[in-house]
Amino acid sequence: MPAPRVEAWRDLIAGGASSEAFGPLTLEEQLDERQVADALQAGRKQRVVTLVLSLLLVAAGVTGAVIGWQTWFGDDERTGGALRFGSVDGTDEGGAVSGGAPVVDPRLTEALTTTVAVLAGEGPVEDRITTAPFSTFPYPPGALRASLLDYGGSGQVVVVGPEGFTADSCLRASVVTEDLRPLDVVTTGPCADPVGRTAAVGCVGPSAVLLALDVPTGGVELPEGGEGFADAVRVQLVADHPDYEVLSLRATIEVAVEEDVTIPRFGGAPGDELSFDLGAELVGRCTLVDPAAEGG
Fold this sequence. Notes:
Number of strands: 17
Radius of gyration: 20 Å
Oligomer: single chain
């Protein structure tokens, strides 16, 4: 990878100026599942383990160089992300969107089970990553589920949970690349530190909420160079706790690029009561909102 691109990418990960086009990367966005798992398992390793890992990294670097060359200079270029939409029919004069009742695709449905916790205080983040007791979270892992849907040709993520959770939950959804690079971030609910833009809510009820996302169908030019594609959606329940700098439950909805998966579409009109069955005996209900009234 050219040196300018490497420097730009480092600035981006650090939340520098190069990320301003999509908003600064938050600590939650930087702490992906792989980093958390590595930090929790690593602990205090002895020098001999470090040496072994270093040798493995050298070997991996050689392999990575070959793969990187093929990625950057190969003949096969991507034209779209892994998240794909079907045909778009639009709306009628009454604001109704064509399509039947919502039926989710299990391949695009995930439970919020991954816990991320960073203790408050000084020192490197890696040293403060911990496993928080389930009692510190507003809802236990698995109590909330999320799924991707298409409503009127627009990407939507529905979050379903216990009765009343939509009133007191800070929810964040991010469209990300395969490397977890955020392309769009929305937040809704009572959040101590809102990130991204305020989500447009398309359907809301005591046990379900529908958030609109900007899911690009083609490549997005990144300020640090290169293109990014919409390959996954990360959904987070963000908690506010005095003992933790970061405390969240999350899920990442993703499919492989080569898989032929189309985001399922549903329809309806403002005022319609909808039911979303996300499996695991978790069914959420909400009322479609009139976008014009919401914007006014």
